[in-house]
Design a protein that fits this description.
Number of strands: 36
Distance between the termini: 58 Å
Helix content: 25-40%
Shape: globular
Largest sheet: 7 strands, mixed
Oligomer: single chain
Structural class: alpha+beta
Length: about 950
């Protein structure tokens, strides 16, 4: 029977939509299972075949869990704020909302074509005011919270104010920007403005001067992961380090919990390692050094206080405020030039560049508090202001980077850890040796020396032992238009939150999406964007009088704000009264399976864990972590095509002749190749772009053969394959099976359209099992043991594969089972019905159609997954190969129930064996049960 995939897939996609087959109920006795894909950003290019890989895997798992009787939440939505739509708006004047809507419609059309079992009724978009109302609400809660180290959680700011009223800062153990000291009396006497200023020091969302990645061309601050090699990832514009007043989130308060929480998660180890490194916990001491001729003190954090006697110079971060104070007039020009150069590098670049050594001498000296020797103070880009104190004591004999610095600037290298190595030539970093040249530490091993020096530092009052974290607070404001407005207004220069009752604070209309002429963010162009405090509403900006009408915050939230909590909104997406009802977040709990790319390790996956922990602290949800199990899917790589242009000409030489010419390799669109071959359609190539219209070709055997290479699939490489084309030709079920068949989910693998014909052939075979010619024919006759064995072998394999996410080997098993059933001409209902259920998570359209033909008028989706019966896998007979003196002589079929002795007796008495023995007695007989019989004569 002809397998008409187009008609079948359209029919069932319409059925699922009309019947809301995948709509999930919150009211059920079923156990829950929450399957989620990482939030897609709807780009203008739509999906290519690489994008659905993770979605197909999660969809198979979601369908499998429904078959197992779970209430499955498998929602979809869009992370729809983002720079690309804003850049397009700047170039064309088209509002980002229009671009985003068009892109979402395109995405949705493509996703529906692939047959995903999403609950579309729960769709959320971060750019919808009904959604970002709650992103703003969470921001306000963060603003009105502080982190109490004694209870190790976030608490309402009211409890901090109460502490100040009763005790001032006495006994306070809080995460803060600066350590403040005041009495209850001083707090009560402070002005309201001063009180607000003090509270900003403790709030979890706070405003402070921060060094940021500033991109003038984009007019915005960029996150570290949006910058590559000193340029913006979007557009490749130069990025500079700059100090600005910015909103920040006190994620640093959660560093230890974020670290410990990793132990409870089933995540890939490399991803956990990335977060652990990013958080960067280290234990050591904070030590103060006097600066000669100045009142200033340089405070350093060191993990090796035991080597302090070997500290021969000091290095400050170029942006350390002390630099300006201690730099001498003679060194000022050199220092200023160096600071300017450093501003062009991001922190990430500075951290990763371990080979290059650079710096400038300030002209000042610190005094080593233990050796009393003078230490020249330098600045260098390898020291970061955000880590520790923005200053390091350099011990070149025992630190590789300090050693390279000392060699370059000809500074003293002093051995203080015992070693035979020449520390003048190479640093020696070990915790296994003993201290030397270190006065009262001499002869002590690392742990004893560290404990003793910390005790001495504390006794002298010049520091203390401490734990430090590399992770800095997350910058939370962007100078761009297309993002969530920050619900803040300014009164006497101090920030105040809008009342939650007036949320959402909606994005205003602007005439242009660029910063204002005064350098304000794009929201500065809005005519209706001021806060009338008396009437509690947004009014025209020209009404600002700083008495009753005040300016609103002009920055917007970063791209990660909306995606830090979206998994909670899916649980209760239409709730107008709260971000998620507590009984629903208690029912759905953690995401049980989260699939997405590893590139989000230190961005989204860290921020969402932080927000989740905060919401738990304040009692709005009950679970510590958002995502229990996470899988990073690999990439599907494209097969790029290249032509060779002879330098200085518009002549193109075929691949195997190119070596004879000086050529330039140029990407060409893979759609210009003939069929699935490597041959270029030269006429199509000439019509592709105007500059190729008069192209000439040097052919081989009358053909132009392109070169091919596996690369990342992307528009710029012209190697993108559109899933719509694949669905048209091979069907969505063909696409789904092929993407799984390509290889293990976590690995990257190349796409090859030619491979689809094999999977499509399987689908036709599977379809035809249910037909006799053009007639649907399924027998109610009881299957044979051989038929049951094929079915139950498949059940065992597929259950194991799905539960271990080995989707590629399941597809192979489907092919083997269908081939075997075809060979034995099986058309028994008791085999073919469960077979359709087993294959349906992978190929839902064809299985729905077969289920319908089998006489059912309900969807196959909620049918119970077939249960394995091991009895069918037990062999009745074993065919034993009989080997004599190492050579296989014959085979004998014997009952599987026989003991080794019984097998031995039957083999020896066999007629063929008697002929081989010719009356001799075997020297040795070895029976491997159910496998082989070895005889030596």
């Amino acid at each position: 029977m002809f397998y008409d995939h187009q008609q079948i897939e359209k029919k069932w996609q319409k059925y699922w939509e009309d019947n809301q087959t995948y709509k999930t109920s919150n009211n059920t006795d079923k156990p829950k299972f929450y399957v989620l894909d990482m939030f897609p950003y709807p780009s203008g290019a739509g999906l290519h075949v690489g994008h659905p890989l993770g979605y197909i895997a999660s969809d198979i798992y979601a369908r499998y869990k429904r078959h197992q009787g779970f209430n499955v939440l498998h929602p979809v939505g869009y992370d729809s704020f983002g720079l690309p739509a804003e850049q397009y708006a700047i170039q064309t004047g088209q509002h980002p909302a229009i671009t985003t809507e068009q892109n979402i419609n395109r995405y949705e059309e493509q996703l529906r074509k692939i047959g995903f079992s999403f609950d579309w009724s729960r769709e959320v978009r971060t750019s919808d005011a009904s959604y970002y109302k709650w992103t703003q609400w969470i921001f306000i809660q963060l603003y009105h919270s502080w982190y109490n180290k004694n209870t190790d959680k976030a608490e309402a700011i009211d409890s901090l104010i109460q502490h100040f009223e009763e005790k001032g800062t006495e006994g306070l153990n809080a995460n803060q920007n600066d350590e403040l000291n005041f009495t209850a009396e001083e707090w009560k006497n402070a002005s309201d403005l001063d009180k607000e200023d003090i509270l900003l020091n403790y709030r979890l969302a706070y405003r402070a001067e921060t060094t940021v990645n500033w991109c003038p061309a984009l007019g915005t601050v960029l996150a570290n992961d949006e910058v590559k090699d000193g340029k913006s990832e979007r557009g490749g514009f130069p990025v500079f380090q700059k100090k600005m007043m910015q909103w920040s989130m006190r994620i640093s308060a959660y560093s230890e919990r974020l670290l410990q929480g990793l132990n409870t998660l089933d995540w890939p180890q490399p991803l956990k390692d990335s977060q652990e490194y990013w958080i960067g916990k280290s234990q050591g001491a904070q030590v103060q050094f006097q600066v000669e001729g100045h009142d200033e003190i340089v405070e350093v954090f060191t993990t090796r206080p035991d080597t302090i006697f070997g500290a021969t110079f000091m290095v400050l971060a170029p942006e350390n405020p002390l630099v300006e104070t201690i730099t001498t007039d003679a060194q000022k020009a050199e220092v200023d030039t160096y600071i300017e150069e450093t501003s062009k590098k991001t922190e990430r670049d500075r951290m990763s560049d371990v080979k290059n050594v650079s710096g400038a001498f300030t002209g000042s000296y610190a005094i080593n508090p233990f050796s009393n020797e003078k230490m020249p103070i330098y600045i260098s880009d390898y020291v970061l202001m955000g880590y520790g104190t923005g200053a390091v004591m350099a011990v070149p004999a025992h630190d590789e980077r300090d050693h390279r610095f000392a060699r370059k600037f000809n500074l003293e290298i002093k051995k203080v850890v015992e070693t035979e190595e020449d520390v003048q030539e190479k640093s020696f970093d070990s915790k296994d040796s003993v201290c030397v040249n270190s006065d009262f530490l001499n002869g002590l091993h690392y742990n004893d020396a560290k404990a003793k020096i910390i005790s001495e530092i504390e006794t002298r009052g010049i520091g203390h032992g401490t734990t430090n974290y590399r992770q800095r607070d997350a910058i939370f404001s962007r100078q761009r238009y297309w993002g969530e407005p920050v619900p803040i207004y300014y009164k006497d220069g101090m920030p105040y939150t809008l009342p939650t009752s007036v949320l959402p604070l909606e994005l205003p209309e602007v005439e242009k999406y660029l910063p204002t002429e005064d350098g304000d963010p794009p929201l500065g162009n809005a005519k209706e964007f001021a806060w009338d405090e008396a009437n509690q509403k947004v009014v025209a900006t020209d009404l600002i009088d700083d008495k009753t009408v005040f300016p609103l915050e002009l920055s917007t939230m970063p791209g990660w704000a909306g995606s830090s909590w979206y998994f909670l909104r899916y649980m209760d997406p239409q709730n107008d009264g709260e971000f998620c009802a507590k009984n629903l977040s208690d029912y759905w709990g953690q995401v049980d399976l989260y699939i997405g790319g590893s590139e989000h390790a230190t961005g989204h996956l860290l921020y969402s864990r932080f927000w989740n922990m905060f919401l738990k602290d304040r009692g709005w949800i009950s679970h510590d972590e958002p995502f229990q199990k996470l899988i990073n899917q690999g990439m599907i790589l494209g097969m790029s095509a290249f032509v060779y242009r002879i330098d200085g000409t518009n002549q193109y030489v075929s691949k195997n002749l190119a070596k004879d010419y000086k050529t330039q390799q140029i990407h060409v669109d893979v759609s210009l190749l003939k069929g699935t071959s490597d041959e270029l359609d030269t006429e199509a190539f000439k019509a592709w772009r105007p500059d190729y219209a008069d192209a000439e070709f040097i052919l081989e055997d009358g053909k132009y053969i392109t070169d091919r290479e596996v690369e990342k699939m992307s528009k710029s490489k012209y190697n993108v394959v559109n899933p719509d084309d694949i669905c048209e030709e091979y069907g969505a079920d063909g696409l789904r099976l092929y993407e799984m068949f390509l290889g293990p989910l976590e690995q990257s693998k190349p796409w090859n359209t030619q491979g689809l014909s094999g999977v499509y052939g399987f689908l036709k075979k599977f379809w035809n099992l249910y037909f006799n010619g053009d007639t649907f024919e399924v027998s109610d006759e009881e299957p044979t043991k051989a038929e049951y064995k094929v079915l139950h072998t498949l059940i065992k394999k597929v259950v194991y594969d799905i539960e271990n996410f080995s989707f590629n080997t399941s597809v192979s098993s489907f092919m083997i089972a269908v081939n075997e059933l075809q060979k034995i001409k099986c058309n028994k209902r008791n085999i073919l019905e469960p077979l359709a259920v087993i294959i349906s998570p992978y190929a839902p359209h064809i299985c729905e159609e077969l289920w319908n033909l089998l006489g059912y008028d309900t969807s196959i989706e909620f049918e119970k997954f077939p249960v394995l019966n091991e009895d069918y896998l037990v062999e009745d007979e074993i065919e034993y190969p009989v080997s004599v003196n190492g050579k296989m002589k014959f085979k004998i079929s014997l009952s599987a129930q026989l003991s080794a002795k019984e097998v031995e007796d039957l083999v020896i008495s066999n007629e063929k064996m008697q002929q081989i023995l010719e009356g001799k007695t075997p020297k040795k007989i070895v029976v491997v049960p159910h496998r082989i019989v070895n005889i030596v004569i």
